[in-house]
Amino acid sequence: MVSRFALLLTLPLAVACAPVAGGGDAVSSPAPDAEGALFVAGKFGNTLSKVDLASGEAVKTVDSCANPHELATSPDEKHVALACYGGQTVDIFSTADLSRVASIDLGENARPHGIVWHANGDLYATAEGRKSVFWIRDPLGKAETFEFGSGQEGTHMLAVAPDGLHAWTTNLGSRTVSLIDLKTRRAPQSVEVGEEPEGIWLSDDGDTLWVSARGSNAAFKLDPQTLEVRQRIETSNFPLRITVRPQGDYAVTSNLSDGGLSVIDTATGKVVRSIKVSGPDQAEAKTQVTILFSPNGERIYVAETMANTIAEVDFASGRVLRRLPGTGGGDGLAIIE
Q: Which residues form the signal peptide (predicted)?
């Protein structure tokens, strides 16, 4: 864990940020306008939890696997896939009752981390221990696996093209981003992008690749095919993840070291505001890790891993609406309506 900084994010625009609820315990209350469920991977407790968004309560928690990290939901929302970072499998659970329905072995020392359940029905996952990406075809059926080497250290997070022909990875140890051809098996293309690139997101139109480099305190806009850096954007401290709002108008980084989010206009590449999620009395909560938008883009969920909470933030106002249970060091997040 990096050292924490005393600096808090400020809000440069006239957008209010209400004080957050105090203390590290989950503060949840019913939200009549919230629907669906949030799934939380507890990486310290080796758990998977389901949180009902209407009531704000955890309705089910089950044992998962060693050091579970990222989550992805199936296109029909009936299943959630979990990358077992402390092992070598991708495990699949029913979203209805969290029963485990499949466990897909990726081989010795796989350490899967980043995961995408594509609209085509297939799963894609990084295998950090093998310096590779796996394509899992028909994961609920034959579960055929195809491995593609990145040749890079710390192949951690990934994005997949809408047509499923290419994947992009961030490689922490090599300080690179890689473009991997999933059909022709041509040698991957890798370029250095800042210090410790980790977060990655491909725009829905496939035209822009967003990367956050936590060691550079910066986000980058890349050309997905050439990996040319189009723009460098200074964020706040330690931008661990980056995501793009479903509407495509804003990109957001989660800044682990100062308890906030940086909001970037995707058209201009400018940071237009900052959202303070954790206050100065919540040192434990200044550990923003995974971030996830609601499908309508109105709320953003922020995993406060060390505090065992998930902050639910109103995106328009920047207000923390409530804190949901993040049992066992909640990290990976997934959502269904």
A: 1-21
